[in-house]
């Protein structure tokens, strides 16, 4: 799985709860990603760090429920596709498919 796909999904699921504008503003603020015309641009850091920054950022503002939304997105995918993208701190909370 491409990192961009998982990151877009996390942002999209957060957007369903907090709204598209706020979800994207927070994604930019906490992880540095950019989204323009449907094209996601990742900052120059490891995708695992970006995923972690998104989880932590959303969690800081909206609590554990936002963290769970992010983890649910990850859980939807087979572990062999997302393993390299899962931050170590959350690995034990992700049940493999």
User: For the report, how would you describe the main beta sheet?
Assistant: 2 strands, antiparallel
Secondary-structure element pattern, one letter each = HHEEHHHH
Number of strands: 2
Model regions low in confidence, pLDDT < 50 over at least 5 residues = none
Could you give the distance between the termini?
A: 15 Å
Envelope shape: globular
Strand content: 5-15%
The tally of helices reads 6
Structural summary, described in words:
By secondary structure, the protein is mainly α. It has helices at residues 3-18, 20-31, 47-62, 64-75, 79-82, 88-91, and strands spanning 34-36, 39-41. It has a two-stranded antiparallel sheet. A hairpin with a 2-residue loop joins β1 and β2 (39-41). α1 (3-18) packs parallel to α3 and α3 packs antiparallel against α4 (64-75). The longest helix is centred in the N-terminal third of the chain and has 16 residues, at 3-18.
């Amino acid at each position: 799985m491409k990192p961009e796909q998982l990151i877009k999904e996390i942002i999209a699921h957060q957007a369903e709860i907090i709204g598209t504008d706020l979800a994207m503003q927070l994604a930019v603020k906490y992880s540095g990603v950019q989204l323009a015309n449907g094209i996601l641009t990742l900052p120059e850091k490891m995708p695992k760090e970006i995923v972690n920054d998104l989880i932590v950022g959303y969690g800081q503002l909206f609590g554990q429920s936002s963290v769970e939304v992010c983890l649910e997105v990850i859980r939807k995918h087979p572990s062999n596709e997302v393993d390299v993208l899962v931050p170590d701190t959350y690995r034990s909370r992700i049940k493999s498919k």
